[in-house]
Design goal:
alpha/beta; 24 strands; 11-stranded mixed beta sheet
Length: 494
Amino acid sequence: MKKIHFHELMKHLNLSGGDETKIQGVTQSHREVKPGWLFLAKAGAHIHGGVFMEEVLRQGGVVLCEKREILGKDALDHKKVVYCDRIDHYEAAILLALYGKVWEQVTLVGVSGTNGKSSVSHLIAQLWKENQVPYLWIGTDGISFNGKQYPSERTTPCASKLFSLLDEALEQKITHVVMEVSSQAIMQGRCALLRFDTVLLNSITSDHLDDHITKVQYRYTKFSLRWYLKEQGTMIVFHDSEEMKEIDQFKIPHLITVGEHGAHMQITPLSCTLKGSCFRLNDYLFQTPLIGAFQIHNLAMVIAYGRSIRLSYRQLQKQIPLLQGKEGRMELFRADEKMILIDYAHTSSALASLLHDVKALKEAKQRMITVFGCGGERDASKRREMTQIACAFSDVVIATSDNPRGEAPWQILMEMIAFPSFRGVVIENRQFAIKYALTNAKKNDIILICGRGSEKVQLVKQERLPYRDKETVLRILEGGFPCLSNMLYHSESV
């Protein structure tokens, strides 16, 4: 990173002001400010970053603040504070001036899609590790420098954070970076300055329709990642659906398609059990301990990536069985002759795929008990649909809370069960819902706990409450949570 004085950087932007502080980094989060860091105080939808200016100055930072008039009397007159109309107009110039085209110095891989972003990116990071390649992984569950984990508030961080992370990767002599790319990140331009060596597009169904309005807009937002490829960059696409085949019209020079029907990399599933899976890809046999058809699809994408970087089929056949599933993705526990599966499935398509796979794996007499919820302040149209899917595949359905955010949990639950044929249990408290499922399950039952995977916090109003499904399960199995309460509605006993 280039060290530039604050006033020199402002002059470069044709803004007046600033002092002699040498800029050491850039951030949009006041929590990350260190001495010499530039804080970009944006006027957000709910809060103006300018309210943190005094705190930033105490921490030794400097400030570029947007829309001084909004702050009114709270605006500071200080050599370490400069005001502008729109930070977005200057952000690209700031990042390029300080970091340069940092993406050119690493192998950058982006993974997108409605489902599978975390799993595919996690598997690619493991593949690099097996080949002694130093890596940085950025995604839903945090940030990992060669396995050393740090938290992250977003699946895809803002542009300033991404540049900072890539710069830190170079300092640590990390050569390869894989990142999840969400549709909101594409729409908001968080990765617009970056250029990828490879983009992997997993299956795209419908999600975030509160942001994208229509399925077509959502899908084509994902397709726009083709513009972010380096000159010789490759796009790898899971190609089975008719909607995904629409990408063919763009004539992408380096396109690899993966799927079970008419793709460059042809998948032939052979067997799938609760002990593992077996499949062929272009007539090469692969085995994996991972469970479920969706894991076969994820691994096929990873193998396609491996071939694109010239790993041999023989090498991949040896390494694929060593790759482990991501925590909270079809994670299996066994207790008291019951099977407990924790999975991140939180969209209609992901839930349907998961339940379909498990139903195909279970024995005839085994029951499926599904615990799940729907997030607040997200696409409300999928709530009833997800419950209908759960009812169609499961023997017992338990609806509960999952990141209600600013919405009332009971209101979300009422929307989830708003159809005449709903049969199941509603328990608002997620811990009690899981307790109810485990204590009422019979021998050999399969209990699926869906929606959160390895997430470590529950989002309630403005709070981030520590909570993990895995910890709840383990505590219950050890005899914790002795009482049940807060049952809102109970139409049929387990």
